[in-house]
Amino acid sequence: QVQLVESGGGLVQAGGSLRLSCVSSKVIFSFNAMTWYRQAPGKQRELVASISRDGDTAFADSVKGRFTISRDTDKKDSVYLDMTSLKPEDTGVYFCAAEGRLGYPEAKYWGQGTQVTVSV
Predict the structure, then answer these.
(1) HEC states along 53-80?
(2) Of 38, 39, 56, 109, which is most buried by a Cβ count within 10 Å?
(3) Nearest in space to 66 (alpha carbons), one of 87, 80, 51
(4) What is the pLDDT of residues 72-112, one digit of tens each?
């Protein structure tokens, strides 16, 4: 069983910054990718950022240049999402996901989410 626990959400003014953390109960390098999704009220969950086992990163167009994704290569159990220049449209519940494992390429594990609210 994989457990993911997000933290770091909160209320911030537009233009501000937040760092989200995701701690995994399994070594993150055992997954093909670690990803951050978000879901705004009334909208579908969308991919925000991902980092592959090899370290390749990808971002949604809406956050490029403002968000970065990184991971803890010492403890190998955490992934981070650094969010800067936040906008009200970044508001939503942010979920961490661990995707794909050896023998289970379609596996996806979710955290419980952390709320980010950006005020004008």
Answers:
(1) CCCCEEECCCCCCCEEEEECCCCCCEEE
(2) 38
(3) 87
(4) 989 899 999 999 999 999 999 999 999 999 899 999 999 99
